[in-house]
Amino acid sequence: MTCSLCERPHSAHGFCGMHLYRLRRFGSTDKPTGPSESERFWSRVKRGAGCWIYGSGAGYGRVKCRGRQESSHRVAWILTHGQIPDGLIVRHKCDNPPCVRPDHLLLGTYQDNTNDAKARRRIQAGASAPSAKLTEDQARLALALRSQGLTIQAIADLFGVCRATISHLCSGRNWRVLRETPAQMALSL
What we know:
The chain is an alpha+beta fold. It has helices at about 15-25, 35-45, 70-80, 110-120, 135-145, 150-160, 165-170, 180-189; strands spanning about 45, 55, 60-65, 70, 90, 105-110. It has 3 domains: about 1-35, no CATH class; about 35-120, Homing Intron 3 (I-Ppo) Encoded Endonuclease, Chain A; about 125-189, Arc Repressor Mutant, subunit A, CATH 1.10.10. Strands 1-2 form a two-stranded antiparallel ribbon. A two-stranded antiparallel sheet has the order 3-4. Strand 1 and strand 2 form a beta hairpin. Helix 6 (about 150-160) packs across helix 7 (about 165-170). The longest helix is centred in the C-terminal third of the chain and has 12 residues, at about 135-145. The relative contact order is 0.07.
């Protein structure tokens, strides 16, 4: 005898082992379907009046979506609005990494994200940068000395820093904020 549903060998009550198991376990011989990807994702979100927090709320949440690990805010965007166009990223209006509230998210470029970080003072530059070896006044003085013809090594010795520190300052690699005009600063915000 065979299963009344799939032609596999009969086990009991007219069903094969798999269909009998499903009937006893789930009350139906149909293949059990769990919650959808969307339902699973949103069930892990703590909703409040402000930000909606995914998971534990520690940093950018990670979730498996369509077979890939993704940041939770990207998954929230995909589930709400569809695919993210090439060349764009999902940014936060609220500056809260674990937030997945759709109206707190927007698309933009990496440059838009950097401009936001500068405007919100999340990127440290100049003397406030953790790696800064000079104060702003010392940096201005070093640039003035270089424009008067002093060598990079002589300036480095004067301030007690390595040659690369002064070289990066003079080339504009570091301390770009000293080279920006007020109009350029306004554009970067």
